[in-house]
Amino acid sequence: MSNISSEFIQAIPKTDLHLHLDGSVRIQTLIELARDQKVPLPSYDEAGLKETVFKDRYANLGEYLHGFQYTVATLQTDEALQRCAYELACDNFAEGVRYLEVRFAPQLHARPGMSIAEVLRHVNAGLLRAKKEFNNFPAVKEGKEPPFEYGIIVCAMRMFTGGFSEYFRRFTGVLTHTQTPRLYGLASMALAEAVVAIKREENLPIVAFDLAGQEDGYPAEDHVQAFQYAHKHFLKKTVHAGEAYGPESIFQAITDLHADRIGHCYHLFSADRVKDPRIHDKQKYVNNLAQYIANHRITIEVCLTSNLQTMPELKSLSEHTMRHMLDSKMSISLCTDNRTVSNTTVSNEIELAVEHFNLTPKQLRNIVIYGFKRSFYPDTYLEKRAYVRKIIDYYESIEERFGVVREDA
Q1: pLDDT per residue as tens digits for the range 75-91
Q2: Domain ranges (residues) in the chain
Q3: Is the pTM of this model over 0.85?
Q4: Phi, psi values for residue 210, rounded to 5°
Q5: Contacts (Cβ under 8 Å, ≥6 apart) of 245
Q6: 100 Cβ contact partners less than 8 Å away, ≥ 6 residues apart
Q7: Angle between helices 180-202 and 224-232 (to 10 degrees)
């Protein structure tokens, strides 16, 4: 571990596969946008916002998500969407991230005069502008460094109803508790249909469909139709699961929603959180679930800082279930979740993993390269293979430059 320095981590090519646009707006940009758009903030200076909104620790996931009301409120114009997407790509490229998957819920930014398609176009425009700038750098053009690439992940929300609640009230006169889950499903299905059509007609680099939002009380099974539709139209699937609920949420993500990757998956090994009374042997249930994930190389998007901030029971990262994931030889990728809300970077997440799990150079290389291999790369499989080969060659050149020796080298 001693020769895995901060400088080495900064230099190696990296990915971020779990990154929310609205959780990663630069604080100074947020302040400027809020002033321009007359959006009220608790404070209009960076120190004040870090004290009141973007904290080091949060009481729970609900408090953690509190800050999104401000960022989403300022991401309601084409200029804001393009600017924040561009700046996010710049911040990542500056720390060595060469492949990025930016996720967000376009329905939260759409409004009269700006459709879901337009929201996606604006975010893509910002990312594409950054990509063209980076890939025009001499080191990239000359093949000395790998190019920058990105994909867009569209998030359905577990509790979002869109305009369907008003539709039900208008035509039935009442909205019952049993109808509400149907509304969630209708909203996510409408989004899936829109995304598939936009991807087909405009060839935007939309690479996957995601399910985000509060897990407890909002099961994945409400969104089966939407994910089945995405699945049949060859969109990859990633699902937030096992972050604030137990293994059954992860099971639903895999079996009902065809998840190719899982966001967080923190409670994968928490047999004590299995609630279904029909499951008598909870430990066996968890063991079988973990074995299935490992066997099928379903990649886990691990977000260390985010988990530490939102889980009061997690006193130290040394207790994080990433240790069990490593012991089980699972496919994992280290991600930021939200660069601003969690005040972190990919390099910081890797440093934390090296520190708390005593990663060897071989383990670190596997984790980083898995990020590229298990990405939802927007081009063909052969193009992806060629890109990953460039990444591996570049990674190995960095190892040589820093004198980092793997056990298998």
Answers
A1: 999 999 999 999 999 99
A2: 6-402
A3: yes
A4: -125, 160
A5: 215, 216, 267, 273
A6: 15, 16, 19, 88, 89, 92, 127, 148, 149, 150, 151
A7: 20
How many CB atoms are closer than 10 A to CB 382? 8
Q: With CA atoms as reference, report the closest residue to 339 among 101, 25, 9.
A: 25
The residue count for the chain: 409
**Distance between CA atoms of residues 365 and 359, nearest Å:** 10
Which run of H or E residues covers position 14?
strand 14-20
10 Å CB burial of residue 117 (0-12, 13-18, 19+) is middle
Spatial distance between the Cα atoms of 92 and 14, rounded to a whole number of angstroms: 9
Interior/surface letters 354-368, b for 16+ CB within 10 angstroms, e for the rest: bebbebebebbbbbb
Domain 6-402 classification at class level: alpha beta
Q: How far apart are CA 53 and CA 65, in angstroms?
A: 10
Query: Are 26 and 75 a contacting pair, CB within 8 Å?
Result: no
Q: How far, in Å, CA of 52 to CA of 236, rounded?
A: 37
Nearest to 106 by CA among 98, 97, 115: 115
Question: 353 with 366: CB under 8 angstroms?
Answer: no
Q: Give backbone dihedrals phi and psi of 63, rounded to 5 degrees, phi first.
A: -70, -35
d(CA 333, CA 275): 28
d(CA 356, CA 351): 9
pLDDT in tens, 338-378: 999 999 999 999 999 999 999 999 999 999 999 999 999 99
